[in-house]
Amino acid sequence: MLQDILINWSPQETRVAVVESGAVQELHIERSLERGIVGNVYLGKVARVLPGMQSAFIDIGLERAAFLHVADVWQRQAEGEPSSPSRIGQPVVPIEKQVFEGQSLMVQVIKDPIGTKGARLSTQISIAGRHLVFLPQDDHIGVSQKIPLALRDALRQRVQDLVGEEGGGFILRTNAEDSSDAELQEDIDYLRKTWSRIKDAAIRRPAGSLLHQDLTLLQRVLRDMVSEATQSIRIDSSEQFQALLTFAREFMPKAAERLQLYKGERPIFDLYAIDDEVARALGRRVDLKSGGYLIIDQTEALTTVDVNTGGFVGARNFEDTIFKTNLEAAQAIARQLRLRNLGGIIIADFIDMGRADHQEAVLTELKKQLGRDRVKTMLGGFSPLGLLEMTRKRTRESLAHMLCEPCPSCEGKGIVKTPRSVAYDVLREILREARQFNPREFRVVAHPAVIDLFLDEESQHLAGLSDFINKPISLQADAALGPDRYDIVLL
Questions:
Q1: CA-to-CA distance for 360 and 357, rounded, in angstroms?
Q2: C-alpha distances out from residue 429 to 330, 331, 432, 434, 489, Å
Q3: CATH architecture label of 283-403
Q4: What is the 3-state secondary structure (H, E, C) of the chain?
Q5: Given this model, what pLDDT does residue 82 score?
């Protein structure tokens, strides 16, 4: 299916939408202030070696020195064995015999700085491509453990043939399983060219310099998202268009032909009402065209999707109504997983189907739709309870986790107490306070809905409590308080 990629760029945020047949299928967001430095390659300078800790502090030009442990120092093993970092069970060369103060050292960040701790480094350089990871200091071909065992030897041999005499180590990523030789060769060329630029920069630049920055979202669009189905890549910033065009011409010439500068008066995301789609993707309910709907709940452990018929009564009988709703839900679920970037365990509760052929048809449709996902998914069959379990690889934060935070009122529960429940909590709290303290007056500060209840339906109970404790109780509405928040002030 043909697709268009729309890019909305601003200094603080980059947003990318993948659109197919007028519908948003994927949304990617990167914020400049939240972008880490993991993957960046620096020419560092050894500031201090600590033999007692078997580590060293490396100046890479940041506010705090970065940290290099001996376990992350890449060292050549005996002849005939692949080079590898220090591992338990292998003889470890002490760090003081590998690095010295003042030495220039090419390093890569493997962990961002946190709090007062500097970044963590490795001297093993790895450069990620679309299908492969390049290990320029190595010489073996590895395969992701998530690729089926039966396919690994054939994939390894294909890459070995493409690598040829130029050498270098490569690891086949999970999505290399279905890649063609042409796609693998394009990745190899891109990775080698990138490594060549890093080496040239290391010669020309002083210690403390950034040699290679992990790709921005704009660049990852070209590396990871562009395919034969991509018609156009439109971006609304002339400055970023030129930068992206330069990058594409050097590394991905085919993608450069599809780049376009958007000059329309309307914001580029307005073309397909993408902001409205984002707002809907943050909600629990997803309406289906037939009148049915999905309820999507994301928890820490898993995501649940509940399918409901809603107002759909268009089929000839109830069994057909259920089948048609489930078919449409299968398409919508696959799209929502991509759009919201939901990962981990996902449980879909389709409407119960009495016929085995209906179940099989819904399962087939869901498999077909999940097949369009660039993120690896695994799908099981229907359980005896009619539940469908699947897993989707976590690649980044979900859309909700990126754009939202737990509600301060409900603390992420999604519900709050009713005004009447809060009112009764207030009455109990006043009674508790009256047994411990002897103020002149109690003042209740609460949400207006709670105060209105005390002034109307619960006024008799409030007056009765006041008489019982023999203290006046005054009321004060505060709309800034959450629906179930209140304060009791002792005057």
A1: 5
A2: 50, 51, 5, 9, 11
A3: 2-Layer Sandwich (3.30)
A4: CCEEEEEEECCCEEEEEEEECCEEEEEEEEEHHHCCCCCCEEEEEEEEEECCCCEEEEECCCCCCEEEEHHHCEECCCCCCCCEECCCCCCCCCHHHCCCCCCEEEEEEEECCECCECCEEECCCCEECCCEEEECCCCCEEECCCCCHHHHHHHHHHHHHHHHHHCCEEEECHHHCCCCHHHHHHHHHHHHHHHHHHHHHHHHCCCCEEEECCCCHHHHHHHHHCCCCEEEEEECCHHHHHHHHHHHHHHCHHHHCCEEECCCCCCHHHHHCHHHHHHHHCCCEEECCCCCEEEEEECCCEEEEEEECCCCCCCCCHHHHHHHHHHHHHHHHHHHHHHHCCCEEEEEECCCCCCHHHHHHHHHHHHHHHCCCCCCEEEEEECCCCEEEEEECCCCCCHHHHHCCCCCCCCCCCCCCCHHHHHHHHHHHHHHHHHHCCCCCEEEEECHHHHHHHHCCCHHHHHHHHHHHCCCEEEEECCCCCCCCEEEEEC
A5: 46
Rounded Cα distance between 39 and 219, Å, is 14
Give how far the C-alpha of residue 14 lies from the chain's centroid of Cα atoms, to the nearest Å.
15
Residue of 214 and 207 predicted with greater confidence: 207
What does the chain come to in residues?
491
Pairing between strand 3-9 and 13-20? antiparallel
Asked: is 419-490 a CATH 3.40.1260.20 domain? The reply is: yes
Q: pLDDT tens digits, residue range 336-375?
A: 999 999 988 999 999 888 888 898 999 999 999 998 887 8
Give residue 104's pLDDT band: very low, low, confident or very high (50, 70, 90).
Answer: very high
Note the CATH architecture for domain 3-35+216-274: 2-Layer Sandwich (3.30)
Query: Which amino acid is located at 146 in the chain?
Result: K
- Six-digit token pair at 243? 């930068």
Phi/psi for 232 (5° steps) reads -150, 155
Residue type for position 343: G
Summarised one tens digit per residue, pLDDT across range 168-199 is 899 998 778 878 888 899 889 989 999 999 99
Instruction: Give the C-alpha separation, 28 to 318, whole Å.
Output: 39
- Domain positions in the chain: 3-35+216-274, 48-212, 283-403, 419-490
